Amino acid sequence: MPARGFFVTGTDTGVGKTLVCSALLHALAARGVSAVGMKPIVAGAVDVDGRWLYEDVEALRAASSINAPDALINQYAFRAAIAPHIAAEREGVSIDVEVIERAYAKLSALADVTIVEGVGGFKVPLGPHVDTADLARRLNLPVILIVGMRLGCLNHALLTQAAIGAAGLQLAGWVANTLDARMPMFEENLAALNERIAAPLLGVVPAMPQPKPQSVAELLDLGRLIP
Ligand SMILES: Nc1ncnc2c1ncn2[C@@H]1O[C@H](COP(=O)(O)OP(=O)(O)OP(=O)(O)O)[C@@H](O)[C@H]1O
Ligand SMILES: [Mg+2]
Known about the structure:
By secondary structure, the protein is of the alpha/beta class. 37% of the residues lie in helices and 25% in strands. The protein has one domain (4-224): P-loop containing nucleotide triphosphate hydrolases (Rossmann fold, 3-Layer(aba) Sandwich). It has helices at residues 17-30, 55-63, 70-73, 84-90, 97-108, 132-139, 153-166, 186-196, 213-217, and strands at 4-10, 35-38, 41-43, 46-48, 51-53, 76-78, 113-121, 125-127, 130-131, 143-149, 171-178, 201-205. The chain is globular. The site of magnesium ion (MG) has 4 residues, from helix 1.
């Protein structure tokens, strides 16, 4: 199978991108497709016994079916859980999408499919003149949109769809991830999105007490993503 990649974005930060990326990696491996996760930019470290760990990077590494060098999985890591361009400025770092592009070229050669998790939503600034949409465009990858199902998601999802189109990228699919188990009119909102998003719905993930990527993988339909 020729190497392929997807750029995973979300309607916001904290909407389940890492959970669904990890689930996609498991679902691919279950189909016999080798898959690796990439988190080029991460902001927010946790102190685990005196070691700074980045949960997204760890989760994607754990869900990948191949081992890859750390430097290819993540290029920019900022300890503070703040907007990446502000974190970068505070640390005197400039986020260079070419560096990420080169890492992607090497990483994607190691697996059949590479899943790249963005940072926050689709238009998060990465520096004075570059944002996440530019990164996705530079990598030239079809996009998977994770919609965090809660009040306000229709506007966020449709704005994101418009921004993906404006970047000249294909929306390959979307996932409805339930953030609010008691969301009123859930089915009506799901239907409203389905009518307006011009890409296949890859799965509906319920709110889970202890979400595990392996369980979420079983809810995803990769048939229309990977022929
Ligand atoms: N369907 C779900 N049911 C229960 N908890 C969920 C669900 N989806 C996500 N979560 C939880 O919500 C939190 C945020 O999810 P996740 O880290 O995947 O979001 P993200 O979009 O990757 O965030 P970030 O913008 O920080 O990268 C995590 O603790 C995750 O376990
Ligand atoms: Mg994440």
